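Chain A, query sequence.
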Amino acid sequence: MQPPVKAALLGASGYTGADLLRIGVRHPGLEFVALTANTHAGKPMSSVYPHLAHAGLPDLVANEDVDFSKADVVFCGLPHGTSQKLVTDIVQANPGIRVIDMGADFRFRNPQAYAATYGAQHIAPEMQEMAAYGLTEHNRDAIRKARIVACPGCYPTAALLALLPLIRTGAISSDDLIIDAKSGVSGAGRAPKQNTLMAEAGESVSPYSVGVHRHAPEIEQELSRACGSDVVVNFTPHLIPMSRGELVTAHVKLGNATNADDLRGVLQQAYAGEPFVRVAEKGELPATGHVRGSNFCVIGVFDDRIAGRAIVIAVLDNLVKGSAGQAIQNFNVAFGFAEATAIEALPLFP
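Chain A, predicted structure.
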């Protein structure tokens, strides 16, 4: 048996970092040798996340205290704008190391698109050439070779899994795409915010970042690449009072398909044999409870009452398939493990 791949995790105190550890400690080929959380440096992981007390993890340290020469892979769970310099330094100083970034800093193929979306210039555009967009089901070949794997955002993961096969085949039109999205409050991160307080988020559904959400250009980037022309989407996210889970409803105009059955057939063909994407049977309504705690995505297709249109619904767990689980899936592809290793768990229900 080959020795385990030694991993460092940057940003271990965030929700995505915690879920990556929850999943990753069960991986037979992965060993965590360093965990960082600058605000919690010096603390045991159990003091930040008691549910990980039995995992035998190293104590948290500051980023600058990690000896990256002892790691084979770095998982990055830092907010946007914070990983560019750090990842660049790590990769340049350690020629054999690879990075799997769950943040936004390397998702845009064009650094100018990053600047336009996040309001600041990308400080390491030359590193983008080393990066692969980490939507596993649609980019495995690039992921296998890349030094940096940029995992998609949670909303783009759901939207793109639902729409890429349809737009690539012309089954739907690239015009008039409306995406209505809802996510649990963990998607907003662990830092205290007024709108995620229980008294404000509980028993209330609220839209946010209306017309300006940063995931819309990411979705547009990949849809445009798939169909060969510029695609613009109408994207509106909503905060929903639950901890985890995400539901995306895409209202689409039919292209060469004539109805929802045709669209379902395209998706079934595209995802035949895929371990984590399931196309729902006709009439089955996907729900976040069907994927909670798992790396699965379920996609359903329905005829709209408006002629020439259809409705495509995708659900996933925003912390697993939308982040940490997809990161492990990409790790498996990049390092030659069976793709489902450590992420085979079925959803929690109820």
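The first helix runs from residue 15 to 24. The first strand starts at residue 5 and ends at 10.
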